[in-house]
UniProtKB/TrEMBL annotation, chain B:
Domain of life: Bacteria
Sequence segments annotated as region (Disordered): 1-20
Bias-annotated ranges (Basic and acidic residues): 8-20
Protein name according to UniProt: Phenylacetate-CoA oxygenase subunit PaaB
InterPro entries recorded: PaaB (IPR009359), PaaB_sf (IPR038693)
Coiled-coil region list: none
């Protein structure tokens, strides 16, 4: 997902009886469907876990602009270009909604940026893959945004108020993203033979990485169990992945494209699609920094930060000057 | 590849979590009034060097789809807020004043709508 492999306390979930009164009242409030707000008491583990999760999600939105930004200047028509620009601008907006939610937990924007730029904090593995053709813009919207929606819709009900509210805003905009991707895929899949091949190739390359977005099975993960008890994770990774395949496989069929997995077919008994696990060795390798674009992505973010420094500092100096001029005039 | 940690600028080195560094733009809370005559409503926050830029940034971050007709930007440090510990003292007195709600009073049906 946009936040993968988030570590929690690692100590397992305490029962209500094992908790101190503060923590117990906190957990009971969450169990009853209540929201936790920035100034409320919260366990330190909850705060740290959320900073990691929301921060990683925000970084994914920001870094996620790069693979699509790659095609803005080469979009096939002016309309496609305007749409892609709007989509990429939305991703920046999503990053900002999430950073401001994280900041309510007592971390600063610069702290988060610093940890992204130094590689200490991660972003989703999916953005370390290149976008080689225009059809990739279709595959990214359809598959990557489609997978993200699976996770983000339930997160609108997450226990932390500012995070839930950011998710509501994001979900409202996300379905535009997925539809514009599918629209590109429809055009390509029904186009010339060369276009159809390009669409199939994009599906071939993005299918595995899209399945990896949900993270490896977390059925036995103590981190996930704690996150689920705190309602900052709403579904297991396998559950969301299955839902994604069930939704996407018929769409691929509609497009006349073939999912690059011979075992992917509807199981009449379960009512769900069977499918093969993606290459988890590749996933861990990408997380370690060895994906095709890890270096390029971090370099681009660092360059943007360095090149923008004079703007940040200049505007701050200008604001200070205006403020003192105003004070002098009073 | 550099990072803010290795910044040559004296004020940009990392500070403990929770403090705004001297180079970080101040945080502004953004309030938007929607189309239909409702009050301004808090939508989120953003960083900007001054009020003018806060409003310009708010336009891009929070009203990309015609969400509003008016923007307020308030520097976060200027907002006074009640704290959760005061909850009891502030709101509990309202609980035993049920007569403030119209449903407290039984009005006979023959009186009609009231």
């Amino acid at each position: 997902m946009y936040a993968q492999m988030i570590k929690s306390t690692g100590q397992g979930v305490k029962s209500l009886d094992e908790m101190e009164p503060d923590e117990r009242a906190f957990q009971e409030r969450i169990n009853a469907g209540g929201k936790i707000e920035p100034k409320d008491w919260m366990p330190e583990g909850y705060r740290k876990n959320l900073i990691r999760q929301i921060g990683q999600h925000a970084h994914s939105e920001i870094v996620g602009q790069l693979p699509e930004g790659n095609w803005i200047t080469r979009a096939p028509t002016l309309e496609r270009k305007a749409i892609l620009l709007a989509k990429v601008q939305d991703e920046a907006g999503h990053g900002l909604y999430l950073y401001c939610a994280a900041e309510t937990l007592g971390v600063t924007r610069d702290d988060l940026t610093r940890d992204l730029l130094s590689g200490k904090m991660k972003y989703s593995s999916i953005f370390n893959y290149p976008t080689l053709t225009w059809a990739d813009m279709g595959a990214v919207g359809w598959l990557v945004d489609g997978a993200a929606i699976m996770n983000q819709v339930p997160l609108q009900r997450t226990s932390y108020g500012p995070y839930a509210r950011a998710m509501v805003r994001i979900c409202k905009e996300e379905s535009f993203h997925q539809r514009q991707g599918f629209d590109i895929m429809m055009k390509m899949a029904n186009g010339t033979e060369a276009q159809r091949k390009m669409a199939q190739d994009a599906l071939n390359r993005f299918w595995g990485p899209a399945l990896m977005m949900f993270g490896p099975s977390d059925a036995d993960s103590v981190h996930s169990a704690q996150s689920m008890a705190w309602k900052i994770k709403m579904n297991s990774n396998d559950e969301l992945r299955q839902k994604f395949v069930d939704q996407t496989a018929p769409q691929a069929e509609y497009l006349g494209l073939t999912i690059p997995d011979k075992t992917c077919k509807l199981n009449a008994e379960t009512g769900h699609y069977d499918f093969a696990q993606p290459d988890w060795d590749e996933f861990f390798d990408v997380l370690r920094g060895n994906g095709p674009c890890n270096t390029e992505r971090l370099e681009a973010r660092n360059k943007a930060w360095d090149d923008g420094r004079w703007v940040r500092e200049g505007l701050l100096a200008h604001a200070a000057k205006k403020r003192s001029a105003k004070l002098a005039a009073e | 590849m550099s990072s803010p940690e290795t910044s040559p600028y004296k004020d940009s080195e990392a500070s403990p979590h929770g403090e705004t560094r001297a180079t970080e733009w101040p945080l502004w809370e953004i309030f938007i009034r929607g189309q239909h005559g409702l009050s301004h409503r808090h939508v989120g926050s953003l960083h900007a060097p001054d009020a003018e830029m806060a409003i310009k940034n708010a336009r891009d971050v929070y009203t990309r789809r015609n969400e509003g007709v008016s923007i307020w930007a308030v520097e976060a440090s200027d907002i006074a807020a009640s704290s959760p510990e005061e909850k009891g003292a502030l709101y509990e007195p309202a609980n035993d004043k049920v007569y403030r709600h119209p449903t407290f009073f039984d009005i006979p049906d023959e009186v009609g709508a009231m």
